[in-house]
DNA sequence: GCAAGGTC
């Protein structure tokens, strides 16, 4: 019996009854023996097999692919070796095989590859276990009702892999080949998820670049305790200057306003929902400015240390069977959390604890929660993310906070102004989530309708409309989630790859010229790859393969035809496409080497990184007239900090090393900021 | 040197 991962293998064993453990290559196998059979439950670790090209060379199109052990095709998959070897040993012993991986396309592929590559290709000897949660009762029932080999799902899953390979590898190669035709080299990539992700970002970037702001005016009434804003039937913005001037001249000099209306609204502010991975990533980004990929890897570490539950979950639900009380009692023993844990436990003495639940579900895992186990030494960021997870766990038990909003309408010469306030009357769950509650608290003086109020002054402010907001690393991950592109485990990685390729930079995200040019090129020559429709189409095809209405080979044949046409067209215009890409690459590289203005008084040049055979240094663009130079560190990537040193006036740089040892400094080695270096 | 999807 093959489980999707070590944890699940253990759960399968627990559900099946008495078991013993046999270790092989450092991997735990679970042995369950009955009167007439012996079951070995062995874990995979996700995709133990992966696609690789079987033909030679880097040309495209490439359509010849086959499955190979992942540790052989990927440098970072060394840890899979022992699992692979164990599966090989266990598969040799078996007469029959059960695929007990997650019941979805990927699970079907994971189990199928292990069994077919290492066990048997005889499908009559393969069974499929179908379960939707990992509870013992579900697993037991699934085991008692083993189904035949799931040909449809497996074929659909295998096809999904191959189609993604076809589209991703080939179009990526086409881009790189185009650049190489122009005698340059740059790693470029795109794919079914990367493509649309870049496209959303590029569309937004163009909207921002093309945005033309409209001016408008606002008028404020200032009192010693608050300010109120002019509005005309709810509209606070005045679009013509003459109109604003007119109103202003009629109220200017008035020193009193009358309270014409007070509206009080009491409302509940509900507690948040339990964290799924995206929710945690969003909150870690807004609270600590930690990017989604880092949060994911921190969460994985915390999970491996048994401090939190499985983090790669879509679920926003915390079922009672996780044992609320037990976890809360353990948290109570942690110094930092004693008070909050007590508060939650006190809430209901009758054991009827319940939590707020979100809408999203996940078949395999509940929402993220702390196990209660006492953490040892955590890094600074680990501590932050852990604290956030614990406090969110407390918060979901809380009662809604009681809030009150107050809108006060003031009148001056027939013109109306609004002052608004929001205050918390009862904190409830706010106390459990401190210090992560972010709500507005602004109080207004207690006044009554008809009362007169002194005015300090009126203010007329000119403003302008703002361009659309940029995506952040987090909001683009949410956007992908909303559109069902990628999965919980891959979205942050996809965004990270766009940074690696230099298609995007900074956060909030700015699309580079290279990114814009790539998006434009793909839109023109391979529009399917930047369209989210490709994913929808894949989903439909997988559905029909699953139902055995279409065969894997038919689907692949069709993709080879369609993609082949696109790629031929691309290839014909390779040189021009490449020239355009090269211009964008050069422009970006040129921008990247510019560090800041030359610090010589009489020089208007720009200091930039100069590379030589022996290394690199900083020189001035006006090097005919200006001999200003500075040394640079030999190792690490140097980028401009976009700032000038207060002490010496030279540009500040950011040095990032592969070791993860990053630092900032100005480029003058004699600057007093380095006195104690 | 290229994807997307699992996972440690």
UniProtKB/TrEMBL annotation:
Its EC number is 5.6.2.1. Residues 535-576 form a coiled coil. Residues 1-136 form the Toprim domain. The record marks 47, 160, 164, 312, 501 as: Interaction with DNA. Residues 349-378 are annotated as: Disordered. Keywords: Coiled coil, DNA-binding, Isomerase, Magnesium, Metal-binding, Topoisomerase, Zinc, Zinc-finger. It comes from the Archaea. The active site is at 310 (o-(5'-phospho-dna)-tyrosine intermediate). Residues 150-567 form the Topo IA-type catalytic domain. Residues 189-194 are annotated as: Interaction with DNA. GO terms for cellular component: chromosome. Pfam families: Topoisom_bac (PF01131), Toprim (PF01751), Zn_ribbon_Top1 (PF01396). Belongs to the type IA topoisomerase family. This is DNA topoisomerase 1. It comes from Candidatus Nanohalobium constans.
């Amino acid at each position: 019996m093959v489980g999707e991962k070590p944890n699940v293998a253990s759960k399968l064993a627990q559900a099946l009854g008495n078991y013993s453990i046999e270790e092989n290559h450092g991997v735990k196998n679970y042995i369950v023996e009955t009167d007439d059979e012996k079951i070995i439950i062995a874990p995979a670790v996700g995709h133990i097999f992966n696609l690789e090209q079987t033909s030679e060379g880097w040309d495209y199109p490439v359509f010849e692919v086959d499955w190979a052990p992942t540790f052989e095709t990927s440098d970072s998959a060394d840890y899979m070796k022992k699992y692979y070897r164990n599966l090989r040993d266990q598969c040799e012993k078996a007469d029959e095989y059960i695929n007990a991986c997650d019941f979805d396309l990927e699970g079907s592929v994971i189990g199928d590859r292990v069994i077919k590559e290492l066990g048997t290709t005889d499908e009559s000897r393969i069974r499929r276990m179908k379960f939707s949660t990992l509870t013992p009762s579900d697993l037991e029932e699934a085991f008692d009702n083993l189904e035949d080999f799931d040909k449809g799902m497996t074929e659909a899953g295998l096809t999904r892999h191959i189609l993604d390979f076809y589209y991703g590898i080939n179009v990526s190669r086409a881009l790189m080949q185009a650049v190489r035709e122009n005698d340059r080299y740059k790693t470029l990539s795109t794919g079914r998820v990367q493509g649309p992700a870049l496209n959303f970002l590029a569309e937004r970037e163009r909207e921002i670049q093309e945005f033309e702001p409209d001016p408008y005016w606002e008028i404020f009434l200032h009192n010693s305790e608050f300010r109120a804003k002019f509005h005309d039937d709810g509209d606070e913005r005045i679009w013509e200057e003459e109109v604003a001037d007119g109103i202003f001249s009629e109220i200017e000099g008035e020193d009193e306003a009358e309270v014409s209306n007070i509206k009080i609204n009491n409302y509940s502010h509900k507690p948040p929902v339990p964290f799924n991975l995206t929710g945690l990533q969003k909150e870690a980004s807004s609270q600590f400015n930690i990017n989604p990929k880092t949060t994911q890897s921190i969460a994985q570490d915390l999970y491996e240390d048994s401090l939190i539950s499985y983090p790669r979950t879509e679920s926003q639900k915390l079922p009672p069977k996780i044992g609320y009380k037990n976890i809360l009692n353990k948290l109570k023993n942690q110094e930092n959390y004693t008070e909050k844990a007590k508060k939650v436990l006190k809430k209901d003495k009758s054991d009827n604890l319940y939590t707020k639940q979100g809408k999203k579900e996940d078949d395999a895992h509940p929402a993220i929660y702390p196990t209660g186990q006492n953490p040892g030494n955590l890094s600074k960021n680990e501590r932050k993310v852990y604290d956030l997870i614990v406090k969110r766990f407390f918060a979901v038990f809380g009662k809604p906070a009681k809030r009150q909003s107050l809108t006060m309408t003031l009148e001056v010469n027939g013109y109306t102004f609004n002052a608004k306030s929001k205050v918390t009357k009862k904190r409830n769950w706010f106390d459990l989530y401190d210090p992560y509650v972010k709500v507005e608290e602004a109080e207004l003086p207690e006044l009554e309708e008809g009362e007169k109020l002194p005015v300090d002054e009126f203010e007329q402010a000119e403003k302008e409309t703002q361009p659309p907001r940029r995506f952040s690393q987090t909001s683009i991950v949410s956007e992908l989630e909303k559109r069902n592109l990628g999965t919980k485990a891959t979205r942050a990685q996809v965004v990270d790859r766009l940074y690696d390729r230099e298609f995007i930079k900074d956060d909030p995200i700015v699309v580079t010229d290279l990114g814009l040019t790539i998006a434009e090129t793909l839109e023109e020559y391979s529009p399917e790859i930047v369209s989210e429709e490709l994913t929808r189409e894949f989903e439909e095809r997988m559905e029909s393969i699953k139902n055995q209405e279409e065969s894997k080979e038919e689907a692949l044949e069709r993709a080879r035809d369609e993609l082949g046409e696109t790629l031929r067209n691309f290839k014909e215009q390779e040189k021009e496409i490449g020239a355009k890409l090269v211009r964008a690459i050069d422009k970006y590289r040129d921008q990247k080497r510019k560090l800041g203005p030359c610090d010589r008084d009489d020089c208007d040049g720009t200091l930039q990184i100069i590379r030589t055979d022996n290394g690199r240094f900083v020189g001035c663009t006006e090097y005919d007239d200006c001999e200003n130079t500075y040394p640079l560190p030999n190792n690490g990537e140097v980028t401009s900090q976009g700032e000038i040193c207060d002490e010496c006036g030279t540009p500040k740089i950011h040095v990032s090393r592969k070791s993860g040892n990053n630092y900032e400094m100005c480029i003058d080695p004699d600057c007093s900021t380095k006195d104690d270096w």
